[in-house]
Amino acid sequence: MQGIGNRGWLAGVTLLAALLIAGCAAKRGPVPVEDRGTMANAPVSAAPAVPGVPPITTDPSGKPLPGIENYGKPGYYAVRPGDTIRRIGTETGQNWRDIARWNNLDNPDLIEVGQVLRVIPPVGAAGVPAMPPSTDVKTAAPSMSTPPAAAAPAVAAPAPAAAAAASAAAKPTPAIVTASPATPAATASGDEDVGWIWPAQGSLIAGFDEAKNKGLDIGGKAGDSVLAAADGRVVYAGAGLRGYGNLIILKHNNTYLTAYAHNRTLLVKEDQSVQKGQKIAEMGSSDADRVKLHFEIRRQGKPVDPARYLPAR
User: Fold this and answer.
1) Which of 15-19, 216-220, 235-239 has the lowest average pLDDT?
2) pLDDT greater than 70 at residue 89
3) How would DSSP label each residue in 75-127?
4) What Pfam families does the record tag this protein with (predicted)?
5) Which residue did the predictor score with more confidence, 182 or 201?
């Protein structure tokens, strides 16, 4: 009888456990799957996603993120985790102060993941200085591209009928007849013709490795000259990017940027124009294990092997 009682007790416990498991499963239900293609707050026109940027459209309080209506449009950048306004300026080849101004940022250090920022000058905006073609952005983000030349509408050729009327008029209209088309942005072939020189005289201590080293490491002594590898404009000068120390970034044209890292002293300022061979810094060991210059060439935002571009020594 005792054995029968034990078996009955065990059967009861087993049944109770089964009922509990079934009840939990019924309450929990299947794991919900978020359909990101049909979000209620998804940007209008189904703008393409930017790699690495979550499709967030509102902040924790439910308020739409600034600029979300421009998400995925050319010339705009969606803030990614870990981004700072200075890093965004570096990636897009723009001065971070200009980006802050174009987006009316009261505090440039306060930006949110998913927030969408303009990274090219507003067309025709009051108070925005005219910028030469070389400052147009080619690659603001992986999925962004340069929009058609903004100056085209302003210099569009008159319709045939209007041209005929102008030529037949008693008084010529020099403003229309003699107006020259705006100088187009540099062609791809022109952008490639940079005329590089070596940025330092020391020996090469580390070559390019796409996974481990995005440029060349050139040895030397503290205080050795660091030279601009080509004509350009300073778009960054500071120590705000971890791992680079005192860093200078030059923009040469629509296609190429160069970076000069680990300097002891910076001799140029942001927005300053520099000439090929000009001394822009002194070699150092800031944020590095030894004195060296880390030199990068970025083509349309992507690091390339500088040895393929620099002249043979």
Assistant:
1) 15-19
2) yes
3) TEEE--TT--HHHHHHHHTS-HHHHHHHTT-SSTT---TT-EEE-SPPTT-TT
4) LysM, Peptidase_M23
5) 201
Domains plus CATH for the chain?
A: 43-148 (3.10.350.10), 193-308 (2.70.70.10)
pTM for the model stands at 0.52
**Secondary structure element (H or E) that encloses residue 233, with its range:** strand 232-238
Catalogue the long-range contacts made by 184-192 (C-beta closer than 8 Å, 24 or more residues apart). 184/133, 184/149, 185/133, 185/134, 185/136, 185/149, 185/254, 186/133, 186/134, 186/253, 186/254, 188/255, 190/253, 191/253, 191/254, 191/255, 191/256, 192/255
Residues 6+ apart with CB under 8 A from 221: 283, 291
Residues in the chain: 313
**In terms of C-beta distances under 8 Å and separation of at least 24 residues, what long-range contacts does 62-70 make, across chains too?**
65/112, 65/114, 65/115, 65/116, 66/103, 66/112, 66/115, 66/116, 67/103, 67/115, 67/116, 67/117, 67/118, 68/43, 68/114, 68/115, 68/116, 69/43, 69/44, 69/116, 70/116, 70/118
| Under 8 Å between Cβ of 306 and 296 | yes
